[in-house]
Fold this sequence. Notes:
Elements: E1 11-14, H1 20-32, E2 38-43, H2 46-55, E3 62-67, H3 73-83, E4 86-91, H4 103-125, E5 129-138, H5 163-178, H6 182-185, H7 192-216, E6 220-224, H8 247-259, E7 271-273, E8 276-278
Helix pairs in contact: 1-8, 3-4, 4-5, 4-7, 5-7
Amino acid sequence: MGDHVWSMGRTAVVTGANQGLGFALASGLAKQLEADDVVYLTGRDPVRVRHAVERVRSPRARVRGRVLDVRDDAAFRALTDELGGVDIVFSNAAARLTPDTSWSELVEPFVQTNNLGTTRALRAFAPVLRPGGRLLVVASSFGTLRELPAHLHARFDTDTMSLDDVDAVMAAWRDAVLEGRAADEGWPDWINIPSKVGQVAAVRVLARERRDADAAGATLVAAVCPGLVDTEASRPWFADMRGAQTPDQAAAALLRLALDPRPNQDFHGELVQFGKILPWR
């Protein structure tokens, strides 16, 4: 496979880019792309989006803020209609888990943002992803089948599922949490695990559907795991953060993958951490 030659005037989009890793990704793209390129820094709060754009220091590429609520299909349509085509997408938006709040209160916004938000992003950006583009979903090492009991693995048969099927599985899990059935069905107690498995499953399904065309065009669809990042969202959940990365440190490997002109096609449809595949099964 030869090198893909990037076209002039690349367009990049980062969702959930107001703070933390999302801001580091948007800022990093702005510094590493060229003057003809544009980075769209998105979030659902217009004031926070504007302030985030103002915080990007010494960009080479142009940085534009856009309001994008990943829970809203119409918002995705409006953005993709405006852009026409995209070259790099980081789907990073995520609802925050807060200690001392019941899963039944958190699971609905969590699924709407992390899971249905991911599949909305995949449906919206995949059709406008240019040859040689990168469509990357920020997930975690929890997003593999080994985190689930074996009897649940068949629910994530990504060799046969559609994105609608993935959405249906996540909605059924959400309902089980809300109705108090999740533990009896064997779901892990921590809702982050099924949610991350659902995100990676969605990436695998889309990548399977696009595999031949993407290989021909050096296009990459993948899930990415940044490792432990020291942010306000993660800090309450870990007693020892001494090994955690700053958002800028965590963004570095993800940016290398996004900007690599010769991506490893073995990464297509996989969960990638620090240049290595975390096996699905």
